[in-house]
């Protein structure tokens, strides 16, 4: 009989622990404004230095939509400063992009802008 009492107590304790864990707030994603106050610009190339990103974090690209855009590209597109056909191109001037695990590459696809430094590579853990 005493053994059954212990089992009931353990089950009750396990239920309480489970309820506490389910009520704990989920880890929230961080939101980063690319380029900080300067926004997405020709000087954004070093913006990632010293920052830590994780999958699910959100990058906000703020820029003049009449002069720039943001293209999500592959490593090859990043290196070549080229957005291939079918690449996701953002043009609102206030774009929110959720990071995937691994390295995420972004360029401005306006001719000459990427070559002038308007590109970033963001690695998310």
Summarize this structure briefly.
About 20% of the residues lie in helices and about 25% in strands. It is an alpha+beta fold and about 120 residues long.
How would you describe this structure to a colleague?
This protein has a single domain, classed as Cupredoxins -  blue copper proteins (Immunoglobulin-like), CATH 2.60.40. Helix content is 22%, strand content 26%. The strands form 2 sheets. It has a 4-stranded antiparallel beta sheet with strand order 4-3-6-7. It has a 3-stranded mixed beta sheet with strand order 1-2-5, with no helix packed on it. The model has no long low-confidence stretch (mean pLDDT 88). The radius of gyration is 22 Å and the shape is elongated. It is of the alpha+beta class. GO terms for molecular function: electron transfer activity; metal ion binding. Pfam families: Cu_bind_like. InterPro entries: BlueCu_1_BS (IPR028871), Cupredoxin (IPR008972), Phytocyanin-like (IPR039391), Phytocyanin_dom (IPR003245), Plantacyanin (IPR041844). Keywords: Copper, Disulfide bond, Metal-binding, Signal. This is Plantacyanin.
Q: Could you list some keywords that capture this structure?
A:
125 residues; alpha+beta; Immunoglobulin-like; four-stranded antiparallel β-sheet; three-stranded mixed β-sheet; 7 strands
């Amino acid at each position: 009989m005493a053994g059954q009492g212990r089992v009931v107590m353990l089950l009750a304790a396990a239920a309480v622990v489970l309820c506490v864990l389910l009520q704990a707030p989920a880890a929230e994603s961080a939101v980063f404004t690319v380029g900080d106050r300067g926004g997405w610009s020709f000087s954004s190339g070093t913006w990632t230095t010293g920052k830590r990103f994780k999958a699910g974090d959100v990058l906000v690209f703020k820029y003049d939509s009449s002069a720039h855009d943001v293209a999500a590209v592959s490593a090859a597109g990043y290196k070549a400063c080229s957005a291939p056909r079918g690449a996701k191109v953002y043009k609102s001037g206030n774009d929110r992009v959720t990071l995937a695990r691994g390295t995420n590459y972004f360029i401005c696809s306006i001719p000459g802008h990427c070559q002038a430094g308007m590109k970033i590579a963001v690695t998310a853990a």
